[in-house]
Amino acid sequence: MNKKIAVIGAGISGLVCAYELQRAGNTVVVFEKNDHVGGRMASRIKDGFIFDIGADHLCDLYDAIKAYCTEFGIPWEKMRFLKYGIFRSGKVLAMKDAISTFSKMRMAMQYLLTPDVHDFFDLNNFVDHDKDNAYAFMKRRAGKEVSDYFVDAFTSTYQFHRAEEISVGALFGIMRSIRQDQARWDLHRTVGGMQALPDAFASHLDVRLNHPVAEVIGGNQVVVDGETFDAVVIASQATQTKTFYKNPTEHQRDLLDQSHYAATISVAFRVDRKKLPDTAIVWVPFVESNQISGYVNEAMKGDELVHDGKSLISTWLHEAFAKTLMEKTDEEIFAAVKQELTRVCPWFDGTQDLESFDLQRWPEAMPKFSHGHLTRVKTFMDSTGQGANHVFLCGDYLNSPWTEGALRCGQRVAKQVCLSIERS
Fold first, then answer.
1. Residue 15 and residue 415: Cα distance in Å, rounded?
2. Non-local CB neighbours of 296 within 8 Å, separated by 6+ positions
3. How do residues 42-79 score in pLDDT, each as one tens digit?
4. Distance CA 85, CA 90 (A)
């Protein structure tokens, strides 16, 4: 099969795609604009702490990630504690106490009525349910309290945008998974931080770091900055892809134009470990704060995140607030976030308890699986859009949520490329 293939983007989807293409016997080159691999699954080591600058934790549901960890000998660990909370009216409440008994009954009924659909990590399975936005649907079915404190809070904690911008199809996928695989939502980590797995893939590949691609021209031979390839996989975000892919087909251009992302900023503070209760993650609903979407007690990761009696608390911002801070200095961001975090986190007495540690701006943090997007991607994949011009698109925005979805997308695209090569 030995074809020369370029993969643009060394996030987890691009790395996996490149790895599987190489394993199939092809010569693969990976182009990455940054000085490190991993994309939104990257880590930074500072003062002995590992700061996961994007994705912060994994679930036991992530079977594909676990399989590669086993292959590469990367330890897979359960978090030291797993308790969740929801911030409401000045308190961090247990999930079961966050809404009224009547609302809990209405929500439970919706769980029972959730269709028995397929794997959440491939939202192409949910196109038949891509008929409304999740907030409006759940408000009609279970009421405003459920929509505000569970549907919207879950969406903004993990996607950073509001639930009006996520399809009810994606909501069904999450609800079905929680109903059928609840224990497997337990949080896990890779020892050495999120960076461990991307680094393992990169060690087996020809990765050209600090190499932003300026031009891709599709055709029988695809040209990448003057170098020719038999095929190219573009595993960058849709908005970035548009800047260098010079001759997309109409279907490719339409999909890229209509793919959108939520912004956030991940901010970490060094804190006294004794002030942190054994609560892992706290959701902060938008109705309680239009600034902070949630925060994580990093001490749940164990000894790697506790030094000299200190640990980290990491927080993420709602999209709208993040956009107002994106061009501010680090010091201005830390100051603004400290003020709000001490309001929505009762663990601290004041901003003096929070020592500014590190932050990462994410202008395009997560794709928006909005009403209509699921159908648009599925139509593209089922048509002649994928692989036209010998250019294949790859990434989480292709109905592939979170790190596990992005990784599985890389696997699927590698198979599509190999099948296309066999047919040609």
1. 14
2. 56, 57, 280, 281, 282, 313, 314, 315
3. 999 999 999 999 999 999 999 999 999 999 999 999 99
4. 12
Distance CA 193, CA 56 (A): 9
Amino acid type, 71: E
Instruction: Tell me which DSSP letter residue 149 carries.
Output: I
CA neighbor of 403 nearest in space, from 31, 44, 166, 61: 61
With beta carbons less than 8 A apart as the criterion, state whether 30 and 212 touch. no
CA 108 distance to own-chain centroid: 27
Per the prediction, the chain carries an average pLDDT of 96
In this predicted model, what pLDDT tens digit does every residue of 6-22 receive, in sequence order?
A: 999 999 999 999 999 99
SS3 241: helix
The sign of the CA dihedral 208, 209, 215, 217 is positive
Backbone angles phi, psi at 54, to 5 degrees: -120, -110
Q: Do residues 121 and 280 lie in contact, with contact meaning Cβ atoms separated by under 8 Å?
A: no
* Alpha carbon 193 to its chain's center: 15
Phi, psi of 21 (to 5 degrees): -65, -40
Q: What's the token pair of residue 10?
A: 């060394």
